[in-house]
Automatic annotation (TrEMBL):
GO terms for cellular component: plasma membrane. It is found in: Membrane. The chain crosses the membrane at residues 6-27, 47-63, 69-88, 100-121. It comes from Gillisia hiemivivida. Belongs to the UPF0382 family. Pfam families: DUF423. It is a multi-pass membrane protein. This is DUF423 domain-containing protein. Keywords: Membrane, Transmembrane, Transmembrane helix. PANTHER family: TRANSMEMBRANE PROTEIN 256.
Amino acid sequence: MKDILLIFGGILGGLSVLFGAFGAHALKNKFSEELQKSFETGVRYQMYHALIIIISGVIFPFIKTSQQIMGWCFILGVILFSFSIYGLCLSSANNNKWKFLGPITPLGGLLLLIGWILFTINASEIAIYL
């Protein structure tokens, strides 16, 4: 599981840099100010969670089920949250909003929240031994 987290963390972090540059430059003239802000939110959350995915892969042994669930919540959460925002922004800019993505964003956010709760629980258990 540690290797999966480190790989996904690296990929998601790198993609957030790519998507951030793409949004700031290639899509700047295509997006309204509101769409630009939404796209940037997706990029920002993706980077934050790429970092916590990498940190989790480094500090946790992943011998507990809660640690594995935490890792998958972060990975799936960032994909559902950020990528649904990207899809909504791109489709809206083309006047063909993919409304089916709307409910996916909060589901991704819920998974991220669960990941953070599990991170806090697992980190507090590790801190006891330090």
